[in-house]
Write a structure and sequence with these properties.
The complex is a heterodimer of chains A (550) and B (180). Chain A has 550 residues and is α/β, with parallel strands linked by helices. Chain A is built from ten helices and 18 strands. In chain A, strands 1, 2, 7, 8, 9, 10 and 18 form a seven-stranded mixed β-sheet that branches. In chain A, strands 5-6-12-13-14-11-17 form a seven-stranded antiparallel β-sheet. Chain B has seven helices and no strands. Classes of the chains: A alpha/beta (550), B mainly alpha (180).
């Protein structure tokens, strides 16, 4: 097999961008993806089998067969979990990764999110830290992501955002009914509601048409291809250069190293299950927080007996996701118009600045309302089954508003990905074992957020509300998983440097949410994309200085 | 490949429609359901399960669970995604029958609705895990996509005043080509 300049493992939000940036800069690239390439034609609006409601499995992978993980929750007993179970902490396995079927909220983190320890101090027992890079370092790359991927929305209603040089490239979609109900209520409370930034075309953009305003975004591929992910933006550009080869259904086994301790390529199982070796000058790991950590830990050799980049036992630690809390409100009129954008209105007044809390989070209305969800979201004292339940379904399905949001995670070094000592996947590769939980202060923040959601709903006229803030027994690291290969200046407390380069091995990079030092009080994807542009920029500059040439 | 898939799906739909008549018959207590209607359940198990499901979603102005095809959903999934739940169903349905016979001397399916409700409440109390499984699967079959054998004619969605998912023009773009 021909040697190439770069092998990238994972064609998701970050891997797609790195592939495009390197290929455009003239490097030869092989992009490995364990899943398939789905298109808009594979969109099935199946409420029981999609990427978010996985009653009958994941629509875009991985399959339940042959892809187990092991979870150790607070009870301490390991158990095998399948990809369609929540505790698995799945992200999609396909070209585009999570971005094919995500809701596509495209937030910038706030400047304080990069300075959490300086702002708040670290709660006892937490691993809260500052990032080695700042909001200002990322700002040009946030902008690049907003313009190349395509984001609609309008920040003008809120003062709570970092400095920006340009507005978003597309206006927001027209408001739906929930927006009309929630906006004046938020203003009466002295809050600053605004249109959520979403990686979705509100007008023709980038050669594709606008959103048709159905509400089936999150969990589904877009059937009119108006939602923007790496699969319909950067990856096609990478391929068009002629410098990038995408190999789908290829599962990376390990990063190969030479006797000098430098990476020499990646071994992987191809679509036919045959073990292949792709030799390269550099290796970029973009498999998302759980699988990237797994690949490094599985890359053992005499020089790296505990896995690559793991000299100080940092790989896999500080696993985070997002702990969602909020409230359901019940109204005496129809609040639901079944029109997209589902999530339309947000406030970020509460992300920072509450005395006694290390951060907060954004609050927004919920994306999608499926009848199967409503069965468990009825008012308190509704019978759980029988005629009363059926009547309540009719009464409340269209008279409910859900407000929810991701709580700023306070990381803990004990929440981690390791390798399970015995369980293997269908290729015979040791699987991810997830254990531990985020720092308990996370739950305290989330519970305050839930009360705020209730307050907003009551001000909007809800007759009753129910807060949704339980305390899960395991770190919840689904699509928003992050933190396992933390970025930092100190090799003893991090895995990669500020350019996403592994401290130990200068031709191996981890470029995805694994490097997030913390995960902000927002959906993380735009930050993942901005970091991918930022790290690619540094990588290409180093490459041109021939730093990686053998 | 694609053609083969489509064919399977269509013949499957034919099967489900044919079976639906049996489902309606079960719901009104007629025991003439044909043998071999089910992928996993026996006819006797199906009758018992229908009685439980129809207490979870009873008929009113809109169909009950079994009338909307929930049994076809559950049976189909017990042969597929819910294979792991087969033993729980075997055991739970046997216990339900036993409970009904020892309390009222008859099969659950042959009791009055009031007596069925009494038995189902007892199952909820004393065989909680099984009841929760059936409750979850009944809601999936009743409120989920008709594609999977339940929610016949999208009846529950129409009950809630919803359209079937809109399909307003599926993109035919070839995503492998770059946007120009």
């Amino acid at each position: 097999m021909k040697q190439v300049n770069a092998v990238i493992v994972g064609a998701g939000a970050a891997g797609g961008i790195v592939a495009k940036e390197l290929a455009v800069a003239g490097l030869s690239v092989v992009l490995l993806e364990r899943g398939k390439w789905y298109t808009a034609n594979d969109c099935r609006k199946d409420d029981l089998r999609n990427q978010r409601t996985t009653v009958l499995g994941n629509a875009f992978g991985p399959e339940d067969e042959g892809n187990p993980r092991v979870v150790v929750d607070s009870s301490g007993v390991p158990r095998i979990v399948l990809p369609s179970e929540g505790a698995y902490s799945n992200n999609a396995a396909c070209v585009g990764g999570g971005t094919l079927s995500y809701g596509a909220q495209a937030w910038r983190y706030l400047p304080q999110d990069f300075r959490m320890r300086s702002t708040y101090g670290a709660p006892q027992g937490s691993s809260l830290e500052d990032w080695p890079i700042s909001y200002d370092d990322l700002e040009p790359f946030y902008e690049k992501a907003e313009y190349e991927i395509g984001v609609s929305g309008d920040y003008s209603g809120t003062p709570f955002h970092g400095p920006r040089r340009r507005p978003l490239p597309m206006p927001p979609l027209p408001p739906n009914r929930e927006f009309g109900i929630l906006e004046p209520a938020a203003k009466r409370l002295g809050l600053h509601p605004f249109h959520i930034p979403i990686a979705r075309n509100s007008v023709p953009y980038n050669g594709r048409g606008p959103c048709m305003r159905c509400r089936w975004c999150v969990g589904f591929a877009c059937e009119v291809d108006a939602k923007n992910g790496s699969q319909n933006t950067v990856i096609p550009v990478a391929l068009a250069t002629g410098n990038c080869e995408l190999r789908t259904e290829c599962m990376a086994k390990e990063i190969l190293t030479d006797q000098r301790g430098r990476a020499r390529g990646v071994s992987y199982f191809d679509a036919n299950g045959h073990l292949q070796e792709q030799i390269s000058d550099i290796v970029v790991v973009s498999g998302c927080a759980t699988e990237s950590a797994r690949l490094l830990l599985n890359s053992r050799s005499s020089l790296f007996p505990n896995g690559l980049g793991n000299r100080y036992d940092q790989v896999g630690r500080n696993l985070q996701g997002h702990y969602y809390t909020g409230a359901m409100g019940y109204f005496d009129y129809d609040t639901y118009d079944d029109i997209g954008p589902g999530a339309s209105i947000a406030i970020s007044d509460y992300n920072h600045g509450t005395a006694g809390l290390c951060g907060g989070g954004m609050l927004a209305n919920e994306f999608i309302r499926l009848p199967i969800h409503t069965t468990e979201r009825l008012p308190a004292n509704t019978p759980r089954w029988g005629l009363g339940h059926k009547q309540a379904m009719r009464e409340w399905h269209k008279r409910t508003i859900v407000i929810t949001g991701p709580t700023q995670q306070i990381p803990s070094a004990d929440a981690r990905v390791t390798l399970d000592p015995s369980v293997k996947d269908k290729w015979g590769i040791p699987v991810v074992r997830i254990s531990g939980n985020v720092h308990p202060h996370t739950f305290e923040i989330g519970e305050v957020q839930a009360k705020r959601a209730e307050m907003w709903l009551r001000e909007a006229g809800a007759m009753s509300t129910i807060a949704t803030a339980s305390r899960p027994a395991i770190v919840s690291a689904g699509q928003h998983q992050a933190g396992t290969c933390r970025m930092g200046n100190d090799p003893r407390g991090s895995v990669v440097n500020r350019n996403c380069q592994i401290h130990d091995v200068d031709n191996v990079f981890v470029i995805d949410s694994s490097v997030h030092v913390n995960n902000g009080g927002f959906n993380p994807v735009l930050t993942i994309m901005a970091i991918a542009y930022y790290a690619s920029d540094a990588l290409v500059r180093d490459w041109k200085g021939t730093r990686f040439r053998p | 490949m694609q053609l083969g898939k489509e064919k399977t799906r269509l013949s499957r739909r034919g099967f489900v429609t044919a079976g639906m008549l049996g489902g309606a018959a079960v719901a009104i207590g007629c025991s003439s359901a044909k043998q071999g209607n089910w992928d996993f359940l026996s006819d006797s198990q199906a009758r018992t399960l229908a009685a439980i499901c129809d207490q979870i979603v009873p008929a009113d102005g809109f169909p009950s669970a079994s009338q909307a095809g929930v049994l076809y959903y559950i049976d189909k999934q017990l042969a597929r995604h819910y294979r792991r739940n087969r033993d729980e169903y075997r055991h739970g349905l046997e216990q339900a029958s036993h409970r009904s016979r020892s309390r009222f001397g008859r099969d659950l399916a042959d009791l009055t609705s009031e007596h069925q409700l009494e038995i189902v409440r007892a199952i909820e109390q004393e065989d909680h895990a099984f009841f929760e499984l059936v409750r979850k699967h009944t809601f999936e079959g009743y409120y989920g996509s008709p594609r999977h054998g339940g929610n016949r004619d999208a009846i529950s969605w129409r009950m809630l005043g919803l359209a079937e998912p809109p399909v307003r023009g599926r993109a035919q773009y070839d995503l492998r080509k770059p946007a120009s």
